[in-house]
Amino acid sequence: MLSVPANSEHINESSLLKKASAGDRIAFTTLYTHYFPRLYRFVFFINQSREDTEEILQEVFLKIWDKKESLLRIRSFEDYLFRMAKNKLFDLAKKNKMIHRLMPQQVQTVSDATDEVTYKEYHRVAMEAITHLPERKRTVFLMSVEEDMSLDEIASELKISRSAVKKHLYAAVRTIKEHLRLHAEWTVGMAIFLLL
Questions:
Q1: DSSP string covering 143-182, please?
Q2: CATH number at residue 170
């Protein structure tokens, strides 16, 4: 679990960014310590999950460190951080939306105590099903769910008819739901039974 560091009031951001871009870990840690509390509050306020918040922040800061050489090109480190966090939140929302669409209603209404187990199992099995879809069906499904594209936008992008997109999408959803029904419900049911 990530700790929430105390914030310091004044920093020389441009100097710290310059040092961090050259690999100075102390400078990077100072930036982390300064911005972490505000970023944490922002992400948690939107997401309301400590686990997701900590994971998002860890990913954000690790990605920044991995690409530290580009820090000198950043005009506002704070804006850059919050934009990255918003993108991560958006990705998480899309992933949750996809699983929500695929879960049967009776599993969606399970108590909060089992949500984590249910979600993780359905996500694992759904990803398994998606990777086994025929290429065109998989492409259409991901464009619809992950990129939130309309049927017309997908048709235009793939240069196929709207009805063909609709056919591929419905077939993909039907296949994934059937895969979930056959492979996930027993496992989720057993996990819920054990938790209860």
A1: HHHTS---HHHHHHHHTS-HHHHHHHHHHHHHHHHHHHHH
A2: 1.10.10.10
CB atoms within 10 A of CB 130: 20
Instruction: Give the pLDDT confidence score for residue 134 in this predicted structure.
Output: 93
What tokens were used for 51?
A: 């686990």
Question: For 105-187, where are the E strands, in sequence order?
Answer: none
pLDDT, one tens digit per residue, over 62-104 is 999 999 999 988 888 988 998 898 888 888 877 776 655 655 5
Using the predicted structure, report yes or no on whether residue 43 has a pLDDT greater than 50. Answer: yes
Return the closest-CA partner of residue 124 out of 171, 176, 52: 176
Same domain, 112 and 188: yes
- Please state the pTM of the whole predicted model: 0.48
Please report the beta strands in 58-151, taking only residues with DSSP state E, as ranges in sequence order.
none
